[in-house]
């Protein structure tokens, strides 16, 4: 069987989208790994919705300060130029379009770029946190996710059946099998995991995909 | 002479929180910015039927060890004691944790109500309450369960929903330093929800690492002006 990309590789591919000098917010879980893969020669300012802009790498045990965390509750290190602000100011920054890119996890993404990433069966009281604000307010929403559920069901679907985070918000989806752009004409398969064909990926995707004119394997 | 705001203990500072009160609790998610000692005092004090407004519902002492090895008390302690009637939060229960936080257990048993609010909307509703505004229109939540039952308006071709202000009888918050007037400065990401909540309650009670004399804090870096602070308790780290 052909292999799928691991989570670190998915994060590495997503992080290549970060442009020099941009403000990036990383969601809970896999997106957090993106902070390990800032492309060489680029400066990225990480924003945490808990009220920080410009924090550094994850803290080692010796560096841990429990009052210096990212929005996933992980201790991070300070960095020169870093600044703090309160929650209301943080979400002004987010809703007002001052965050260039947000990377979020997802349970489902629809063919129109609807995102479902918070409520799931059996856990009715897990909230959306800052996910709705980020999905609605960031200039560009990138999703990192596994292409299918544990049971092999597609997560890239015609219509989301899980509770929505926001409509029409996703620009790019990076999975363990593919890189898919959400366009006005629908979903475009731009890159595949090594060895996978368009047909094989379509078979694991409920929404219809179109191959990009320059469809290629993900370069790692 | 201004009134003396400095209390000797957290227990004394929370003594008049009454049954049925609405209480804002600062912080963000885990330990950072959480008024841990005031939370413990509230649990000890025992007020019931509380409406709690907080970003997160807490995970309870046992699960906090996954965040900070020695563990700490969070809102879970107040839920465990059956003191809360309703929680208003953006993350009532943490999806990344097992489903057995005190809040989540009570919620499954139908013993606590919840209102789930997007985090930025929660912060802004509190800021509106603090600033005497009647609400605001936001695009966040349009097309989702959040818009249910709310007024919608198209402004400049974009859809918005009306969100209403939040205020409280008491706010329990954490700051780094207070002067004896109640001017506050915060430390790193422990700022989070604390400054907005400080402004939105009738009685704001703050626990600080250190109380200093008036004039010691640089006026240029004071985040919360003293007018918003009612009671101060020093809890050295």
Describe the protein in words:
The complex is a heterodimer of chains A (220) and B (237). Chain A is of the alpha/beta class and 220 residues long. Chain A has a single domain, classed as Glutaconate Coenzyme A-transferase (3-Layer(aba) Sandwich). Chain A is 14% helix and 26% strand. Chain A has helices at 7-15, 87-95, 131-137, 198-203; strands at 22-26, 44-48, 52-53, 83-84, 101-104, 108-110, 115-116, 140-144, 156-157, 170-174, 178-183, 186-192, 209-217. In chain A, the strands form 2 sheets. A 10-stranded mixed beta sheet of chain A has the order 4-3-2-1-5-8-10-11-12-13. A 3-stranded mixed beta sheet of chain A has the order 7-6-9, with no helix packed on it. In chain A, strand 11 and strand 12 form a beta hairpin. Chain A is globular, with a radius of gyration of 17 Å. The model of chain A has no long low-confidence stretch (mean pLDDT 96). In chain B, a hairpin with a 4-residue loop joins strand 9 (168-179) and strand 10. In chain B, strands 1, 2, 3, 4, 5, 9, 10, 11 and 12 form a 9-stranded mixed beta sheet that branches. Chain B has helices at residues 10-13, 36-45, 61-64, 76-80, 102-108, 119-131, 194-200; strands at 6-7, 22-25, 50-54, 84-89, 113-116, 136-138, 152-155, 158-163, 168-179, 184-185, 201-212, 231-234. Chain B has one domain (6-135, 165-234): 3-Layer(aba) Sandwich (Glutaconate Coenzyme A-transferase). The two termini of chain B are 30 Å apart. Chain B is an alpha/beta fold. The chains are: A alpha/beta (220), B alpha/beta (237). The interface between A and B is large, with 46 and 55 residues.
């Amino acid at each position: 069987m052909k292999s799928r990309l691991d989570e670190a590789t998915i994060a590495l591919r997503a992080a290549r989208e970060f442009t020099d000098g941009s403000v990036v917010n990383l969601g809970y879980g896999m997106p957090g790994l993106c902070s390990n893969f800032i492309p060489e020669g680029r400066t990225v300012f990480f924003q945490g919705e808990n009220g920080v802009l410009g924090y550094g790498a994850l803290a080692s045990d010796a560096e841990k300060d429990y009052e210096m965390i990212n929005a996933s509750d992980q201790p991070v290190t300070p960095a020169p130029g870093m600044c703090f602000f309160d929650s209301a100011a943080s979400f002004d920054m987010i809703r007002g379009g001052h965050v260039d890119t947000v990377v979020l996890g997802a349970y489902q993404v629809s063919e129109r770029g609807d995102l479902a990433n918070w409520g799931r069966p059996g856990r009715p009281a897990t909230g959306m946190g800052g996910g709705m604000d980020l999905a609605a307010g960031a200039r560009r929403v990138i999703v990192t996710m596994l292409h299918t559920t544990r049971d092999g069901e597609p997560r890239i679907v015609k219509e989301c059946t899980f509770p929505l985070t926001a409509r029409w918000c996703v620009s790019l989806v990076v999975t363990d099998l593919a890189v898919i752009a959400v366009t006005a004409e629908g979903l475009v398969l731009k890159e595949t995991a090594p060895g996978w064909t368009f047909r094989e990926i379509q078979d694991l995707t409920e929404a219809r995909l179109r191959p990009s004119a320059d469809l290629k394997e993900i370069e790692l | 002479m201004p009134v003396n705001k400095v209390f000797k203990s957290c227990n004394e500072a929370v003594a008049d929180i009454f049954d049925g009160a609405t209480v804002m609790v600062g912080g963000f998610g885990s330990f950072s910015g959480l008024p841990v000692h005031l939370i413990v005092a509230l649990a000890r004090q025992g007020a019931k039927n509380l409406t709690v407004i907080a970003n997160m519902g807490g995970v309870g002492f046992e699960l906090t060890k996954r965040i900070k090895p020695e563990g700490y008390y969070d809102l879970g302690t107040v839920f465990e004691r059956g003191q809360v009637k309703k929680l208003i939060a953006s993350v009532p229960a943490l999806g990344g944790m097992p489903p057995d936080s005190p809040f989540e257990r009570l919620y499954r048993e139908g013993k606590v109500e919840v209102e789930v609010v997007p985090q930025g909307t929660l912060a802004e509703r509190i800021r509106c309450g603090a600033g005497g505004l009647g609400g605001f229109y936001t695009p966040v939540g349009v097309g989702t369960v959040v818009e249910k039952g709310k007024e919608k308006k198209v402004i400049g071709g974009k859809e918005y929903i009306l969100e209403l202000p939040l205020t409280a009888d008491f706010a329990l918050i954490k700051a780094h330093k207070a002067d004896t007037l109640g001017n506050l400065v915060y430390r790193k990401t422990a700022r989070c929800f604390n400054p907005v909540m400080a402004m939105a309650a009738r009685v704001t009670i703050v626990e600080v690492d250190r109380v200093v004399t008036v004039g010691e804090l640089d006026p240029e870096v004071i985040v919360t002006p003293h007018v918003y602070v009612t009671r101060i308790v020093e809890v050295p780290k």
